[in-house]
Amino acid sequence: MKIAVAGTGYVGLVTGVCLAENGHFVTCVDIDNKKIALMKQGVSPIYEPGLDELMKKNIDKLNFTTNYKDAYKQADVIFIGVGTPEKQDGSANLGYVYGVAEQIAQSIEKDCIVVIKSTVPIGTNDKIESLIKNKLINNVRVAVVSNPEFLAQGTAIRDTLHASRIVIGAEESYAGEILKEVYKNFNAPILVTNRKSAEMIKYASNDFLALKISFINEIANLCEDIGANIEDVALGMGYDRRIGNRFLNAGIGYGGSCFPKDTKALHWLANFHDQELKTVKAAIDVNENQKLKLIKKSRKYFSSFNGLNVAILGLTFKPGTDDLREAPSLVNIPIMLEDGASIKAWDPVGVKNFKRIYPNEVMYCTSIEDTLKDADVCFIFTEWEEIKHFELSKYCDLMKKPLVIDGRNCYDLNSVKKANIIYDSIGRQRVVSLEPELV
Ligand code: UGA
Q1: By C-alpha distance, which of 270, 252, 275, 202 is closest to 380?
Q2: What are the DSSP calls for 372-433, one per residue?
Q3: Residue 327: closest CA among 365, 359, 363, 353
């Protein structure tokens, strides 16, 4: 099929490339000329493992352009995958989605299906269909279908090619059938429902996962106080298949462009309908507090960061991405800087983006060893494999004071006990294999 995709972020570009991999001819549209030039050479403007390779492999079925009219006019199916960032009041900003919808209305010259991949509040697909139908300049038949995305950054290709499910929200059955045809080579269960249910499946899924994380984080905080171990607790819970063992990793809270935004957007929507989603509100509140958990822990060891050498390992909101959106590092580092800390930071891919926000305030290192050298304390914000495999004895060898405050439980406590460090993590007992000297 001839497919156009609006937006070349994580959702749009990965969708386009995976559709090409499954035999479709795909034109990706973006407003940024520089990005288009890069993509034409098979280079992805975003960091996503495996994406460059898949783009290069399918380059003969992929086209990249800023000329939306050309891309949309003869397409059988047009996917919208542009951003829906959070507005000040927590609601979703739909300006980009509506902008593309208008361009589609003014460009299409044959019958087509418009597919909304972007995460949009319930009811938005209906509005987009009305907008397009009102602004059409040619006499063509168009239907809007909701087809939410469930990919996670870092595993986006696998999540798309081997999706857990494909949700199709269509009001007219012919439109649903065309989408089924688009996905006929994907080996995944397909659920066809109405548009509002499809939109809700997306929000409810993300908010449920966010709630699961906030729940385990609250239990973790209690575990610390009562002497239980959150990892064993999560393991024990996860054996129950009704609970499942995934998304039960306690830490310093969820970040990224999705959970924070989607929890707030659904909560906002419920309020708008005079309802309160108390569980979602709790997930949001717990997460905000959890992001500061390491700073609060550090108060046990020193009352101020003034004059301290602080080592930061991990800046991104999770491993496998260079994305900093809503990353705990962005909440914690400013507090430390304001308090007078001298900060060295390491991240395998996130430094470039972090530098845009803090070009001079932080010293960026290219190795974990350099970051730890002469540090008074080390904070771990992201569980990169390089950190998880870092030899524990080196903390003692390199740091002025081997105090490690780990927000992602990177190390097994038994190994830590042999390492001659002070190690404080989430939901587990503190290990002091060295006498702490308060600074
Ligand atoms: C999330 C969902 O997992 C995807 O299914 C969804 O499609 C996507 O949002 C979206 O709406 O576009 P993503 O934000 O890329 O994907 O990342 P996740 O892997 O879900 O992680 C989100 C945050 O939760 C990270 O900060 C991660 O560190 C944290 N997390 C995750 C935990 O703290 N504990 C866990 O057990 C799992």
Answers
A1: 252
A2: HTT-SEEEE-S--HHHHTS-THHHHHH-SS-EEEETT--S-HHHHHTS-SEEE-SSS--EES
A3: 353
- Which ligand 1 atom sits closest to the C-alpha of 262? 11
pLDDT band at 438 (very low <50, low <70, confident <90, very high): very low
Write the residue with the smallest CA distance to atom 24 of ligand 1: 254
Looking at domain 293-438, which CATH architecture does it have?
3-Layer(aba) Sandwich (3.40)
Q: Give the whole-angstrom CA distance, residue 133 versus residue 388.
A: 53
Enumerate the domain spans of the chain: 2-193, 202-290, 293-438
Q: What's the pLDDT at 86?
A: 81
Residue 172 one-letter amino acid: E
Residue 71 has pLDDT above 80, yes or no: yes
258 is catalytic: yes
Confidence of residue 229 (pLDDT cuts 50, 70, 90): very high
- Element housing 333 (H / E): helix 328-338
Any ligand 1 atom below 6 A from CB of 151: yes
Class of domain 202-290: mainly alpha
Determine the Cα–Cα distance for residues 346 and 370; give it in Å rounded to an integer. 9
* CB of 409 sitting under 6 A from ligand 1: no
- pLDDT-derived band at 433, boundaries 50, 70, 90: confident
Answer yes or no: is the C-beta of 342 below 6 A from any ligand 1 atom. Answer: no
Given a cut of 90, is residue 89 above it in pLDDT? no
Going by pLDDT thresholds of 50, 70 and 90, the confidence category of residue 435 is low
150 lines ligand 1 (CB under 6 A): yes
For residue 427, pLDDT beyond 70: yes
Q: Which CATH superfamily is domain 2-193 in?
A: NAD(P)-binding Rossmann-like Domain (3.40.50.720)
How many CA atoms lie within 13 Å of 171's alpha carbon, on the beta-carbon side?
Answer: 15
Q: Is 247 in the pocket of ligand 1 (CB under 6 A)?
A: yes
Rounded Cα distance, 122 and 79, in Å: 18
Task: Note the pLDDT tens digit of each residue in 324-334.
Answer: 999 999 999 99
**243, 258, 291: residue to mutate for ligand 1 pocket, most atoms within 8 A of CB:** 258
Do the two domains 2-193 and 293-438 of this chain adopt the same fold?
Answer: yes
256 with 323: CB under 8 angstroms? yes
User: For 17-69, what is each residue's pLDDT tens digit?
Assistant: 999 999 999 999 999 999 999 999 999 999 899 999 999 999 999 999 999 99
